[in-house]
Amino acid sequence: MPGITDLKLLLAGMKPDLVEGEFVYCSVPASSLADYIHMNPVGLFQEREGVTLILPVEVARQAGLPAEPAMRMITLDIHSSLEAVGLTAALATALGNERISANVVAGYYHDHIFVPAADAGRAMAALQALSVV
């Protein structure tokens, strides 16, 4: 089933869900990825400088990786298309208006927004307000 592309439908039905726990972004050398893949990162992205892992804070700490800044993950409970136009901009604008940084990661089915842990409540309120516009 293809994802939704209509921005109005995406915003109206996005149902932001604050995922349990805190997460951090860490970078490891690509050559050592095999040493870290068993940690089951919620996100992984290869860059020239290394591999970015998004890990639960406690997992990163146990591995001796940097565990700051702590982020919370908000998952949009709607199947958005990878070809949808304007969703990331709408999310970033709503959160930017509240002075909340946002790191958006698109999965095949859902979009996930990582925000500073201290701002998670305000971020949820901003996204919930956006979904009723």
From TrEMBL:
Residue span(s) of domain CASTOR ACT: 72-128
A Pfam family matched in the record: ACT_3
Residue span, DUF2241 domain: 2-69
Name the UniProt record assigns to this protein: Uncharacterized protein conserved in bacteria
Highest taxon, organism lineage: Bacteria
